[in-house]
Design brief:
CATH topology: Farnesyl Diphosphate Synthase
InterPro entries: Isoprenoid_synthase_dom_sf (IPR008949), Squ/phyt_synthse (IPR002060)
Organism: Cephus cinctus
Number of helices: 15
GO biological process, one term: carotenoid biosynthetic process
Distance between the termini: 27 Å
CATH class: Mainly Alpha
Shape: globular
Strand content: under 5%
Oligomer: single chain
Catalytic activity: 2 (2E,6E,10E)-geranylgeranyl diphosphate = 15-cis-phytoene + 2 diphosphate
Number of domains: 1
Largest sheet: none
Helix content: 55-70%
EC number: 2.5.1.32
Radius of gyration: 19 Å
CATH architecture: Orthogonal Bundle
Amino acid sequence: MRKFTPFLRPKIHVQFFRDASTSYKQSSAEYCMDLVRKSDYENFLCTLLLTNNIVPAAFAVRAFNIEIAQIQDQVHENNIGIMRFKFWEDSLNKIYDGVPPRSPIALELHRVLQRYKLSKRYFKRLIHSRAERMGLSTFADLESLEKYSENTVSSIYYLLLEANGIQNIHADHAASHLGKAHGIVTLLRSIPHNAQRRVIVLPRDILMKHNVSEENIFRGKSGQDLSNTIFDVASQAKQHLDKARKLKSDVPKDAKLIFLPATCIDIYLEKLQKVDFNVFDPSLYVRNNLLPLHLLRRKLFSSNY
């Protein structure tokens, strides 16, 4: 079986919050937290373990990202999707002008900006990079996938570093590599969902290199050709994860907790390797009930990411 170079098996605790369906009226902060819990559970757990001073900003940033990321799946016409992206771009300008729309995410982001200095350009990257891909599925090559991951995932890490007041070139470089790794893994995990919609998201150059049958992907069949494709793409994610970790000794201690999602990437890549890079293997999509413990141990007993 093909193997990556050895990587550490990472290691969080579970906190429970009142469900959104209860009768109390949610604050904007609670709304954002609940949205992240329901839509991005792994990052929800990682956010719980951040230092208290940046947790509100982290939930607001991640909730904003979820709202933007879901647009393409929620609309059936490109024009409607573009209109929604434009709405959020206008809303972002209003938020920074101090007159946010009356929506929970906009209100919470406005509240957070009273305390934290977060660059508007990173939020705009989240909007523009997804808007540019409206109606598109596959990437031309790995380089375009990495660029997309930089804009949509690394930007979140940059915002969290800003929330913590960290200005460090090594932390920025680690955020760039980790964001690319995270973005690539997110794409790999989305393959079965997209295949059901008859959408292929893998880079075209790698698909052509291994002569992959699109119909087999739609049918959820993982032959050797697709396995080789997944190996190539996953190896790129692993390389970026390794590069982020090589910078660990130069990254400020407060920044390392922000990079805890590296643990989730590690666990997925290890599981993917064990099933010989079959992205359709059901074991990859079973929630890991030990993840909270792994993350907590990583926070308490190691150098975090």
